[in-house]
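== Folding the chain ==

***
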Amino acid sequence: MECLYINVYNENDFIDCLRREDPRYTSLFQYNPMDKESFKYKLNAPTNGREGQLSNVIETYMSDLSLSDAQSRNIANLRSGHKVVIGGQQAGFLTGPLYTFHKILSLVTLSETVADTYQEKVVPVFWIAGEDHDFDEVNHTFVYDNASNDMSKVKYHTMDEPESSVSNYQIDKEAFKSAVVQYFEKIEETSSSKRLYTRLVEIIEQYNYWTDIFKVLVHDVFKDYGVLLIDANDKGLRTLEKPMLKYMIEHYQDIDQAFRTTQSELTSKGFERMIQTETNVHLFLSEDNSRQLLHYKDGQFYLSKSEKTFSKADLLDIVENEPERFSNNVVTRPIMEEWLFNTLSFVGGPSEIKYWAELKGIFEFLDIEMPIVLPRLRITYLNERISKLLTQYDVPLETVIREGVDQFKTSFVRDRASDTFIQEVEHMMTLQDKLTEQLSKEISTEDNHNLIRKNHQIHQKQYDYLLRRYLLNIERENQISMNHFKEISSHLHPMGGLQERIWNPYQIMNDFGTNVFSPSTYPPLSYTFDQIIVKL
């Protein structure tokens, strides 16, 4: 395998503006991610004193796994106060889309880059967003179906979808196995298929909870990189969070005001508002087996899905005795993450980066330093067959990744069509426009104007149909090439977007080996803002 680096960002893209150190964008964060002095300062910053307790929590959370030597060393590094590079993701079915793996590879790559550059140990930590309760976001994945030459959705079906945090969801083992079977029925059988399937079934049999399965799948692939894992909904972690949870309840008004003020400042400067939330408390509370958002109004706290109310003293008592019932929302989750960890850098997707820009005011109010905020690596996999098809049809890789193949497919068909035929049809449409305009000048009643307008629409519709059907017939005459364009699209611009947002890692492991993502096989990466092309 080898890597290519190409730029697919638009000039005014948020991430590209950060890359170019546009002060309008870098000022949204506490540290300029392109400035080496930012890294030097953060690496030498004092620790928060929680690293000992935090390392114990993570070690306990990962105690059901067989830790690699690299992971054991990193737990020790964390305990001794070394800084972390952190990022997270929801626990998707079969690990979710490829960008879940790419986030983890980003953590590893950035950690190694910083360690080599500054001679400081850095610990990669992957934060599993197990407190989230939107099951529709994690209960499915997509697979490239060779039979249909298209993407197909595979979903875990259940009659009792969770309303509480996904971490608390106990799976239906038969339903989970059924979805796995459906997935493997759609992919091409290879020498890796049986091994992958057998391991998945083994994990399903051994574990009962949704995020535990996700944890093991991720651990299997990334343990040798030394990546540490923690579920944001872990009970031990929540106990450690008690002081900050209490502070968030005590000072909810100040936190909300800092957030709203920062949002207003950004929108006044022309930035799009990213975080949409109506709560003024920014915490969830588990009640009646449901994760409910807290609000404050008329002197009391209340829940979004029930009529239950609480005093501040009530909530503080719950924090003290049942902290696991609380969880953060999109506003307070980054704050809690930074309060817990001695963070060098947070690595996130494009939308996450924008979220963090809206939180600077809260960090300042709480006197918590922001990390260096950096985008995750963006990676596309290019196999030999698709590479040959790109060459065959003279299709630029960068353009396909960004825009798809429609323009090249259209050009291909037009090149095989009769220019005279197309020109004559288009000429007739122009004449029809002129005729309608002339006839309209000769009449005065509304009925006749409606008649002419309707007649014009009918004629133009017929000409349009004639042209479209003519070009469709050419497509049918070149069906093999049309299938090729569809194949290129499904691989490089599936469902109108990036490959890493749709494809699942298990398809890559199935096609190119179960160890394709391991340190011994995966090509060494350089941290970059560019699009990485991994040639398989």
About this structure: The radius of gyration is 27 Å.
